[in-house]
Amino acid sequence: MHRTYSLRSSKAPTASQLQSPPPPPSSTKSKFFGKGGIASSFRKSMAGATGPELSRKLSQYIKMEKNVMRATELTARERRDVAKQLSLWGEENDEDVSDVTDKLGVLIYELGELEDQYVDKYDQYRITLKTIRNIESSVQPSRDRKQKITDEIAHLKYKDPQSPKISVLEQELVRAEAESLVAEAQLSNITRESLKAAFDYLFDATRELAEKNALIAGYGKALLELLDESSITPGETRPTYDGYEASKQIIIDAENALASWTLDGAAVKPTLSLHQSEYDGEHLDEEAEKEAAEEFAKHDEDTENVSEAK
């Protein structure tokens, strides 16, 4: 947030940036490639056409996510430009409109800053997924080698069943299978570990962006309350605007709220219907026992009725 609380002055680092240094800038940030277009489509189409067969689908996914990230980067840049333009337009209006639009510009500019920080965190998510892609690429040769030996053995058994080379190849196949088992186990372990870590990065960053956007929206609506909406007649003048201190305080409050936000204090918590509390479980068990008792009693009653009929 701007320490001067205006887009018409220079910007200083926020408290949150000083306390928690951001991750390194995204490796994809560039003025040329950030705009997407033909280069974006070309990368997406080529990603799944080259490299080991096993890793092609994930490679294409990672490239597609790169395009998403660059689009977000472009949005962040455009949003900052929009914020400056809003402040520029409002400067020549009445005092209340001038002050409020300038402060709204500060908030909108901060939205762009948050999206830019999100891009850096998004890149960490992609980099973690590359770990899976790399292990998939390394596993492919062991699979290919095992398949090649298997094919050679099948060919020799068909062409020359008595060939002494068959036993040699079978021994090689045993070794290849052992190597493949190790590689497949590594792939299984790393896939799960890296998949969880990658999407933890993504969802934590998404939650932070969403909740901070919601905070900014709330303070933005508070700024709008400072505008005098009452209608005036021709020749009538509006009361003198006295909201400068109030608008500045709203920006200060917004800055403090953003700086103090933590993931542990996130307001939105997921509610899962898959998990039940111990109380719910006990309650369900009691219900089940009651239903079973009623069914058993009904069965006894039917049996007694049948006996009496006989």
UniProtKB/TrEMBL annotation:
Composition bias type Polar residues, residue spans: 1-11
Biased composition (Basic and acidic residues): 290-310
Chain coiled-coil ranges: 166-193
GO biological process, one term: eisosome assembly
Residues covered by region (Disordered): 1-36, 277-310
InterPro entries, per the entry: AH/BAR_dom_sf, PIL1/LSP1
Keywords: Coiled coil, Phosphoprotein
GO cellular component, one term: eisosome filament
Record-linked Pfam families: Pil1
Protein name: Piso0_000235 protein
Organism: Pichia sorbitophila (strain ATCC MYA-4447 / BCRC 22081 / CBS 7064 / NBRC 10061 / NRRL Y-12695) (Hybrid yeast)
Gene: Piso0_000235
